[in-house]
Design a protein that fits this description.
CATH topology: OB fold (Dihydrolipoamide Acetyltransferase, E2P)
Radius of gyration: 21 Å
Shape: globular
CATH architecture: Beta Barrel
Number of helices: 1
Strand content: over 45%
Order of helices and strands: HEEEEEE
Low-confidence stretches: 20-24
Strand order of the largest sheet: 3-2-1-5-6-4
Helix content: 10-25%
Length: about 110
C-alpha cells in the first residue's frame, strides 16, 4: 500500500511540475525581414520597411539584432560575411528591449529577382 501511495504522490508531483517547466522554456518568437545595413560577428543591422496604413506612407528603420552562438544561420558561413544590401528574414526573441536573433535566412541573388 505504501508503494502505491508513493507512486501516486510521485505521479502527482510530476504532473504539477511539468507545466512550470514548459512555461519557463517557452519564448515568444517574432518574425521580421529587410535588407542588411551592417553585419558583424555579434550583431546584424537590418533596414526594415513598414507601411503605415493611416498615413499611407512607408517608414524605414534600422533594427539591431544580437547574434550569438545559438543563432541558426542559413545560406551564409557567418553573419559577418553577409554583404550590405542582402535581403534576410529574421526570427527573434525580445527581452528588456534587446532583440536576439534565433534564426537568420539569407536570400541569394536568384531568390530576390
Amino acid at each position: 500500500m505504501k508503494t502505491i501511495m508513493a507512486l501516486l504522490v510521485l505521479a502527482l508531483a510530476l504532473a504539477l511540475f511539468q507545466p512550470m517547466v514548459s512555461a519557463q522554456e517557452e519564448e515568444d518568437v517574432y518574425f521580421s525581414f529587410g535588407t542588411v545595413e551592417a553585419a558583424a560577428s555579434d550583431k546584424i543591422v537590418v533596414k526594415e520597411v513598414i507601411y503605415d496604413e493611416d498615413e499611407e506612407t512607408e517608414i524605414s528603420e534600422d533594427v539591431v539584432y544580437i547574434v550569438s552562438s545559438d543563432t541558426e544561420l542559413e545560406n551564409a558561413g557567418s553573419v559577418a560575411a553577409i554583404p550590405k544590401g542582402t535581403e534576410v528574414d529574421v526570427e527573434y526573441v525580445e527581452a528588456a528591449g534587446v532583440k536576439t536573433a534565433k534564426y537568420v535566412y539569407v536570400y541569394g541573388p536568384e531568390e530576390t529577382e
